[in-house]
Amino acid sequence: MIIINLDVIMAKRKMSLGELSEKVGITLANLSILKNNKAKAVRFSTLDAICRVLDCDVSDIIEYRKDDGQ
Questions:
Q1: 13-23 pLDDT, tens per residue?
Q2: What DSSP assignment string belongs to the chain?
């Protein structure tokens, strides 16, 4: 299963969702969908912008956890 750790990185950087939304250039609603693990897809350009703004790596934001039950 894919886990989005955007909220963890944002907390470490002391950045609000609104501030990240402005700096990345995507809507607050779309960023919220991503943050809450509801997104079905994410553009590489969006990941690039998020990583640039948060000064992090993609692996800090996206994590794969093996789903033992399936």
A1: 999 999 999 99
A2: -EEE-HHHHHHHTT--HHHHHHHHTS-HHHHHHHHTT--S---HHHHHHHHHHHT--HHHHEEE---TT-
Cα distances (angstroms) measured from residue 24 to each of 27, 64, 65, 68, 69: 9, 24, 27, 35, 36
- Distance CA(47)–CA(69), nearest Å, equals 29
**pLDDT tens readout for residues 21-69:** 999 999 999 999 999 999 999 999 999 999 999 999 999 999 999 987 6
Beta bridge partners of residue 4, listed in sequence order: 62
Contact (Cβ atoms closer than 8 angstroms) between residue 62 and residue 2: yes
Contact 27, 21 (CB under 8 A): yes
Joined together, the tokens standing for residue 46 give 């969006």
